[in-house]
Amino acid sequence: MIDFSNFYQIIAKNKLHHWLYTLPAQMHEWEREHKHGFLPRWEKVLKKLPKVETKHINITDKFEVGIPGELSESDLRKTENLLQKFHPWRKGPFHIHGIHIDTEWRSDWKWERLREFISPLKYRYVLDVGCGSGYHMWRMLGDGAEFVVGIDPSQLFLVQFEAIRHFANNDQRVHLLPLGIQELPKLRAFDTVFSMGVLYHRKSPIDHIEQLKNQLRDGGELVLETLVVDGDEQAVLVPGDRYAQMRNVWFLPSCAALKLWVEKLGFENVRIVDVSDTSIEEQRATPWMRNESLVDFLDPNDHRKTIEGYPAPKRAVLIATKPYAEKLDE
Asked: Is 309 annotated as a binding residue?
């Protein structure tokens, strides 16, 4: 099984040490539940990846590791074939020794939209909730974060992340745990908490925002990105069975309603910093994600609507600050 002992040893010496009261038992239970199924097969694929160390790692303006010649032609072909076994690749892109993992999402576009608005990440402890395969975590590290933890319950995202980290010299400043936010205790330790593309999947968005708040230190920053609709403070779309063919979509607030929710939970300096329509260039099928994608989920005669007739996907980025305890007590 994928080994989390290094993570335990690292946090035992940093400000996340109190997580050790609950985490090892949780992960032991997770390992017990996943002894069968896809995970053991994917772990065998991980073990077949060629071993190579590189001094050429760029995570500041993209994710790119390795240069030509560090892997032989046969190892390159082997690597590409092995990485394809982790299909579908949703978030990226990644460049591995010349192999371009052209993911469904151009996650780099989202990062460029928000990075100028967030507090500098230098020296920060960062939590990425619903991190997928970890693309944004590498960019957070590239922007100076000291320690980055991602959580996402998907087994596939975990093995994709471990495959990428394998080629990034097994960097121990970034870790992914297969957990949901509801499984975390109130750590109150992270300087910045990101939740991107998660809120609309939660049955209780207010509870989700409060769970995010419980992971932040006083004065820490929340970066929340989610689907939104047009309208005033009371405008919230509750889709029927599906939204853009997704089943588990519960609430799409307006920007004004989203801001109100976050303010109601006591956050300060709450502001919407970006609103962008999702384009079929940003989310699309590729050789690394060969399933249907956004263009298949929109009205073929009017891309301003989903196939169900709802407004097409529009995403907003909200930033807010958790107040200091003395202000909470006032």
From this structure: no
pLDDT of residue 68: 83
Q: Write out the two tokens for 327.
A: 């202000």
Query: pLDDT at position 327, please?
Result: 56
On average, the pLDDT of the chain sits at 96
**Annotated binding residue 98:** no
Query: What was the pLDDT predicted at 326?
Result: 57
In the chain, what are the domains? 4-322 (3.40.50.150)
| Residues whose CB is less than 8 angstroms from the CB of residue 209 and which lie 6 or more positions away in sequence, other chains included | 199, 222, 224, 261, 262, 265
Residue 27 assigned as binding residue: no
What separation in angstroms does the CA of 135 have from each of 83, 101, 148, 182, 269?
15, 11, 12, 22, 28
105 is in an annotated binding site: yes
Q: What is the mean pLDDT of residues 43-70?
A: 95
152 marked as part of a ligand binding site: yes
- Whole-angstrom Cα distance, residue 105 to residue 111? 12
Three-state secondary-structure class, residue 212 = helix
Over residues 64-68, mean pLDDT: 93
The answer on whether 315 is annotated among ligand-binding residues is: yes
